[in-house]
Amino acid sequence: MIKVxxxxxxxxxxxxxxxQIMKTxxxxxxxxxxxxxxxxxxxxxNSAHRVIITTWQSEQAWDMWKHTEQRAALLxxxxxxxxDEEKITLLTV
Length: 93
Fold this sequence. Notes:
Elements: E1 2-9, H1 15-29, E2 35-42, E3 49-56, H2 59-66, H3 69-78, E4 87-92
Antiparallel strand pairs: 1-3, 1-4, 2-3
């Protein structure tokens, strides 16, 4: 099992747009082979800072999802409302 932590900073006023896209992404991700769980967190001191923590059966499963057309399309929708590039961290036990 691995954890994937994705950090994003959203442009001011774009929170609802981001939330809509993330709902679609999480629904799509649920069907990805090797996906176990995921949660979208909001930084309590900075609501523009979002942290997504997902659990995958393996790094290979994450990598397969990371390179899907579905994720690419959803990222294309998110990129214009991000202040900077997303940061991805992979963790293992």
